[in-house]
């Protein structure tokens, strides 16, 4: 099963009021295991960056001014996403901005049926607890010490680790590793048995002296069961 973990950075909170997507980071998973394939891009939002948003992700007007428009890189993004399920933290926010940009490009929006929201999963597993990415990374022991500011690819990498934890991926992986180790051991034993020489069966027969001692012992038994009549 192929899934894409993704995160976005934006100029604000509401695409309907003119906010735009400025960064997207994607991590590919196959059967809950990262493959090493990623997608990462910055986009020129064609508007100024509010100071509050820049304080969160550090992406300034000067940095973004020479970046491509979303419309110029959309085909590459869609080729990476394919038709996979898309996993995000507070996914409606990220889906909202992604679909707004696709709509501006006059392209079909991504179906909400493809959405997997890790906030919703965390709320089911830990009702009443904090469900921010930082809080959940702390709960599951995921190192985020290298995270100074928000970044789409960095947050997607953290979210990939969290998603694996939330869905029991480590336990699944451990089970597969154990089965693989058993298989290797069994193959080694099979190879060892295959090269052993075949020896004829040995015959062990009691001698006359042993038979006499056995008969004397049986004679001391008080009504042995095997001598009773049925």
TrEMBL record:
Residues 2-172 form the Exonuclease domain. It catalyses: DNA(n) + a 2'-deoxyribonucleoside 5'-triphosphate = DNA(n+1) + diphosphate. Its EC number is 2.7.7.7. DNA polymerase III is a complex, multichain enzyme responsible for most of the replicative synthesis in bacteria. The epsilon subunit contain the editing function and is a proofreading 3'-5' exonuclease. It comes from the Bacteria. It is an enzyme of class 2 (transferase). Gene3D superfamilies: Ribonuclease H-like superfamily/Ribonuclease H. Signal peptide: none annotated. Keywords: DNA replication, DNA-directed DNA polymerase, Exonuclease, Hydrolase, Magnesium, Manganese, Metal-binding, Nuclease, Nucleotidyltransferase, Transferase. This is DNA polymerase III subunit epsilon. NCBIfam families: dnaq, dnaQ_proteo, PRK05711.1. The keyword Magnesium applies. It comes from Sphingobium fuliginis (strain ATCC 27551). DNA polymerase III contains a core (composed of alpha, epsilon and theta chains) that associates with a tau subunit. This core dimerizes to form the POLIII' complex. PolIII' associates with the gamma complex (composed of gamma, delta, delta', psi and chi chains) and with the beta chain to form the complete DNA polymerase III complex. Its cofactor is Mg(2+); Mn(2+). Pfam families: RNase_T. CDD domains: DNA_pol_III_epsilon_Ecoli_like (cd06131).
